[in-house]
Design brief:
Helix content is about 45%, strand content about 5%. Helix 5 packs antiparallel against helix 6 and helix 5 packs parallel to helix 14. The N terminus and C terminus are likely disordered. It binds protoporphyrin IX containing FE and (3beta)-3-hydroxypregn-5-EN-20-one.
């Protein structure tokens, strides 16, 4: 068990005052690669000082399970960070808020609101399919010219989230949609630039262009979302919630604060700020992660045309070209699910998750860990561990099939994290990835522009790990030459 390593002490990088271990972290590598390299020499569990913060880095599956699952509740804290505190009004959100009874209630409320629009609901499917339909039409209108798929994909995913959160559907070029995409971009560029590891709180006192851009983008976001919130409050009824905002507004009336059924003070109830921050976060998380995963998978399909063809033959066999793909096709398209999983394994969008902190004195691998310690779980190294994955750098969806050809999910595959801090959007994300990819690959094929090199697969780490821009050429598949909706096919909605 975990006591086996308790006799030796936890390896730790050297440190200097103020800088901590930073001078030993040179080389300009992004954290997930740097930590993976350090784990080769120090072992899978080691510690270092990020500036003044004592930080434990977990690089293997066994210790990650201990932190996320076995002792998940003890490690469910979040550190306070300058940029995310600005982003979330001091932690009135889910992802960056430290553990508290109110947070727990809030998270449960968000979870149940998502379930309302969740997998079983045909509304969610309708929302996604109508957005997919316009995306397909837009891509097919390229008529053989090469283009960067990222703006169209991001716009389609943003549209899904806008409908889900506040019932807005936008046409191409709508100024409000453009405003949303612009402020989001401003936040993405300025928040947690080297990954989600904010180090020095005192940096905020220096004139800082990046921080003012962040503040500006947040102000634009707040204006827009406050307007939506006021509109929703004015038209709220007791009937079925129209969207996530309705569900949150209705849900907070019932439960009150801290899950104790009363609302005594501002500190223990879900306030307008919480509702606003939740909507903003569902937004940010919904757009960045889903569009990034889609773009990674497309990039790998360009490298592996044989994988694309195999997904398409599966689609031809199980769906055909006479109708749109729907949620109930999911079980019949196992290979596509494997492709999605393999994409999230080889390029996890959140390679070191969000930093965790110990809420009490605890232990990892038999080493005692004191309260307040930061813990980074390096999912990248877990997803590339040669002890658990054969040729981990190879894109090979078959590794998610067992020898009977049935789907099998290895336990060291955790793209959404696990335990009390597991992603709340997992089922929504999986549904979106499935419907987007299935519909795209049913209707068109992606290939490299003539003479172009295949996409760079290194990626760039910002708030998520993103592929560098690349170009594609799409060609309609048989039956879809006329555009997105096939003649004679049933209308999508
Ligand atoms: C947290 C992955 C999509 C909402 C997380 C975490 C990961 C993750 C790794 C952090 C877990 C941790 O810190 O231990 C992903 C991936 C996605 C995705 C790979 C898509 C491919 C979404 C979507 C939403 C969402 C669509 C919402 C609409 C959240 C929230 C948290 C979170 C609110 C914070 C949970 C907490 O701290 O308690 N996600 N996510 N995610 N995700 Fe996702
Ligand atoms: C993306 C930019 C948005 O404007 C704000 C936002 C909110 C939630 C964040 C998301 C950003 C990035 C991806 C995050 C998500 C919460 C969970 C998700 C960090 C910053 C992941 C992958 O962990």
């Amino acid at each position: 068990s975990s006591s086996s390593s308790s006799s030796s002490s936890l390896p730790c990088l050297p440190r200097l005052p103020v800088l901590g271990s930073l001078p030993w972290l040179g080389g300009g590598l992004p954290p997930h690669l740097l930590f993976t390299r350090l784990a080769h020499s120090l072992g899978p569990l080691f510690s270092l000082y990020l500036g003044p913060h004592f930080t434990v880095v977990v690089n293997d599956h066994r210790h990650a399970k201990e932190v996320l699952l076995q002792r998940g509740r003890e490690f469910a804290g979040r550190p306070s960070m300058v940029t995310t505190d600005l982003l979330t009004r001091g932690g009135r959100d889910i992802a960056f808020a430290d553990y508290s009874p109110l947070w727990k209630f809030h998270r449960r409320l968000v979870h149940s609101s998502f379930t309302l629009f969740g997998e079983g609901s045909s509304r969610l499917q309708d929302i996604v399919l109508s957005s997919v339909d316009s995306l397909c039409a837009e891509l097919l209108s390229s008529r053989g010219r090469s283009f960067d798929p990222s703006p169209a994909v991001t716009r389609a995913v943003t549209n899904v989230v806008c409908t889900l959160v506040f019932s807005a559907t936008y046409r191409h070029g709508d100024p409000e949609l453009q405003e949303v995409m612009r402020y989001n971009d401003g936040i993405v560029q300025t928040i947690a630039r080297g990954g989600l590891v904010d180090i020095y709180p005192w940096m905020r006192f220096f004139p800082n262009r990046s921080l003012s851009k962040l503040k500006e983008s947040i102000a634009v976001r707040d204006r827009l979302l406050t307007r939506k919130l006021e509109e929703h409050k004015a038209s709220l009824s007791d009937g079925d919630p129209r969207d996530l905002l309705d569900a949150l507004l209705q849900g907070r009336r019932g439960g009150g604060g801290g899950g104790r059924g009363r609302r005594s003070s501002e500190d223990d109830s879900i306030t307008d700020d919480h509702v606003l921050m939740t909507a903003a976060e569902a937004f940010g998380a919904g757009v960045e992660t889903t569009s990034t995963s889609l773009l990674w998978i497309l990039a790998y399909l360009l490298h592996h045309p044989e994988v694309q063809e195999r997904v398409q033959s599966e689609l031809d066999e199980c769906v055909g070209s006479g109708r749109a793909v729907c949620v109930s096709d999911r079980a019949r398209l196992p290979y596509l699910e494997c492709v999605i999983n393999e994409g999230m394994r080889i390029r996890p969008v959140s390679p070191v998750l969000i930093p965790h902190t110990a809420l009490t004195d605890s232990s990892i691998g038999g080493h005692s860990i004191s309260r307040g310690t930061r813990v980074l779980v390096n999912m990248w190294s877990i997803h590339h561990d040669p002890k658990h994955w054969d040729k981990p750098d190879l894109f090979n969806p078959d590794r998610f099939l067992d020898n009977q050809g049935q789907r099998a999910t290895p336990s060291c595959f955790l793209p959404f994290g696990a335990g009390p801090r597991v992603c709340v959007g997992e089922s929504l994300a999986r549904l979106e990835l499935f419907l987007f990819l299935a519909s795209l690959l049913q209707r068109m094929s992606f290939r490299l522009p003539h003479g172009a090199p295949p996409p760079d697969l290194q990626g760039r780490l910002g708030v998520v790990l993103q592929p560098l821009p690349y170009k594609v050429v799409v060609t309609p598949r048989p039956g879809w030459e006329g555009g997105a909706t096939q003649e004679g096919a049933e209308p999508l909605l």
